[in-house]
Amino acid sequence: MSKIEEGNAHIRQAEKSLKTSLLKWRPDFEVAADEYTSAATCFRIAKSYQQCKDCLMKAADCYKENRSWFHAAKSIEQAVLICKEMGNLTEVPKLAHSACSLYQMHGSPESGATVLDKAGKMLEATQSQDALELFKRAANIVMGEDSPRQAAEYMSKVARLLVKLQMYDEAADAIRREIGMHQQTDHIPSIGRLTVALVLVQLARGDQVAAEKAFKEWGNYCEAPEINTLEMLLQAYDNEDAEAARAALNNPFIKHMDVEYAKLARGLPLPQQEYAIPPPGVRANAAESYTSPNATKLMEETTSQVQNLKILLKHETLPADTVEKEEAQDAPLKNIENEEEDYEGGLC
Predict the structure, then answer these.
(1) What is the domain-level CATH number for residue 230?
(2) pLDDT at 336
(3) What CA–CA distance (Å, rounded) separates 210 from 254?
(4) Chain CA centroid to CA 19, Å
(5) How far apart are CA 34 and CA 60, in angstroms?
(6) Nearest Cα to Cα of residue 125 among 95, 150, 94, 160
(7) pLDDT digits (tens, 9 = 90+) for 76-96
(8) In terms of DSSP H, where are the helices of 185-223?
């Protein structure tokens, strides 16, 4: 008998145990669940993955009817792995969340977080947004169980995915949460590395002030090479020095960070971009601008015309007494000017 036939035989037994009669008032869900599980094993060996998945889901439903939450979650977890074998990842997030909830109902939240982590790794490359939600829930579950070290690992995956998706605001928040988790376990080296990552993310956001605040707040956890690199980088951004910023970002320490942070550093906008073509400016040894010889004469004529016009307007608008007083005041000034002109003429 082939494995396919053996699996079909187990399915018939399961369906038979689910039927009721005059003497059998309630379906035997326990026997049906075991038969469906055996059928799924046969189909997996025969590489009939779709039938295997269907049997696992039916087994999970039977376990739920018996309120056997752990075995139901286990069946759905195996269905997640079968989806991976089939190359069909669309149902993976839903199944992973369902299995996690059942593990929590049984009282095994760590197992639920492990399922979410496995599913997240499957989706990380192709469905980053779904993987992000899975890792976030895993971190929250483990943190609720007072396991900050494990929670920090999940939150690290969240932060790296957010950087990959260029969601820098949320990435900065995730890194701060991860730093807080490492503080609970007094893991100083991790906090130092995360400080560098946080500064890079803040610079990617275009917020230089926030980057400096992050360095001031967490810089005391950094080692000497990290401090020197960050000081050089922030000083370069402060001085708008593109060359110094490039030199700091090419530091071997930054290049050997996690892949997402290293890529972020390579693509970080420099404080002052260099121009591919130099902007137009003053040419060297250029001739002086041309000035017309009549320009001075025209300016003097225009000035005298304006002054005459002002005098006429005064005579028209002011009363006669006021005009006579102003002329009397201006007379001495005119006499002085005439004397100066005569004096200059005498010298000539």
Answers:
(1) 1.25.40.10
(2) 45
(3) 19
(4) 55
(5) 10
(6) 160
(7) 999 999 999 998 899 999 999
(8) 188-204, 208-218
Type of residue numbered 247? A
Q: What is the mean pLDDT of residues 17-32?
A: 84
Residues 6+ apart with CB under 8 A from 141: 100, 104, 109, 110, 112, 113, 116
Distance CA 348, CA 260 (A): 87
Nearest to 225 by CA among 189, 200, 260: 189
Q: Cβ(87)–Cβ(98) under 8 Å?
A: no
**Cα–Cα dist 256/262, whole Å:** 7
pLDDT at residue 275, rounded to an integer: 43
Cα–Cα nearest to 74, from 63, 65, 83, 66: 63
> 200 lies in which domain range?
147-268
pLDDT digits (tens, 9 = 90+) for 255-274: 888 899 999 999 888 886 54
Q: How far apart are the C-alpha atoms of 306 and 98, rounded to whole Å?
A: 90
Hey, CA dihedral for 274, 276, 280, 285, is it positive or negative? Answer: positive
Does residue 155 fall inside a structural domain? yes
- Give me the numbers of helices (H) and strands (E) for the chain, helices first please: 17, 0
Task: Indicate if the alpha-carbon torsion angle 338, 339, 343, 346 is positive or negative.
Answer: positive
**Of 340 and 158, the one with more pLDDT:** 158
Encoded amino acid at 125, one letter: A
- Token pair belonging to 212: 């400096």
For residue 192, being part of any structural domain is answered with yes
Q: How many CA atoms lie within 13 A of 15 on its CB side?
A: 8
| pLDDT score of 291 more than 70 | no
Residue 339 has pLDDT above 80, yes or no: no
Residue 200: the pLDDT is 94
CA distances from 60 to 35, 97, 104, 112, 286 (A): 12, 14, 15, 15, 87
pLDDT value at residue 140: 92
User: What is the H or E stretch that residue 336 is in?
Assistant: helix 320-347
Cα torsion angle, 223, 226, 228, 231, sign: negative
Number of independent structural domains in the chain? 1
Q: Residue 101: exposed, middle, or buried by beta-carbon count in 10 A (0-12, 13-18, 19+)?
A: middle
